[in-house]
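WARN retry 2 of 3 for item q-0093 after timeout on previous attempt; input resubmitted unchanged.
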Amino acid sequence: MKTKKVLIIIVLVILVIPLAGYLFWQIKKGDPVDIFVVNKSLTGYNGSENQTFNYVLNREKIYTAANRAYDLRVDHYGLVWDNGDYRVKFPQLKDIQRTVERSDLVYYADVSGIRKSDLSDLKAGEIDKLEYGGLNNTDYTFIREFIKTKKPMIIESSFFGPADPLVRYNLEQMMDVYYVGWVGKYMKDLADDADLFAGLHWKELYKEYTGNVWDASGPGFVMINPEARRVLVLSEGVHVQTGQGLIVTTDQAMETYGLPSLTNFEGWFTVLHPGRNAVLSEFRLDPTDAGMQLLNDFGIPETFPALIHVDENVWMMAGDFGKCKTNVLFPKVIGVGTLYERIMGSGKGASSFFYSYYQPFMTHMIDEAREVREQNN
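OK item q-0093 returned
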């Protein structure tokens, strides 16, 4: 009988604590912050930058200017699912200034774009405006004007790659950050066919470039120069020491943004030159002598920025940092959710990156937007 009572108490505790956390979240007042999210590549919500950022918004209970919770399935600009089909939503040039003035934070999550082939397996009608993606003059004007406001802007990895050449040049000059042409990814098994880069079949590109069939396997990095159509393979134990601790963060950034000193990242990254800007975190390939020779031959540095502080109000993430899987239940459960995040963030798997790095950084950005909003009101 005593054992039965103990079990009942344990079950009640397990049920009551999460329920109480959820109720506390429900009665917590939502904080309105006008956030302008751009995603020109969204064909699926789960695992996308929109879902992960929505997790952070829910956790902080950030509401729209209309005082409702964000739903970044539709509360974004770029490619939006609407009435059984996709449509392109973005301010026209004449509306740029008004949009800039009302927005508290801008997040360019993904601009790599889509091709009609990306939608071949989806139940969607024909989309007249595809191919769609990349940066154009409207983006340039919007970014230029928003930077002048000193309100926070976050830019993710695909930013420069698909841009119109003149737009890319103008943005590089304005931000003093330069795309060097290479993208890469750490692979647990180089024989894996999954996770193509922007629809690019890099094994086929490798055969086209080298004349050889792809035969790499085991852990390592694949490096791609899409425009030059080159592929480089860095095998772990041969060309690089290890894929662990890929991102290293400065002490100052650890203190300011709550970031870990070392973290693993398994998504796509972009090799950028930071100009005179501050590098808060950097990718380290940790090459062997043979790997260093290969990198030198292809003009790829062994370390390059992962997070750049551009100007005083612009931050550039040089990786697909937002493409993570998250648990959608826990951001709305106060207490239990925090415990879950600490447990998950202490691991070494792909999901730990979201909880240890992306979430703290984006939370800090939201706090920055709140402060600027309060100062301006």
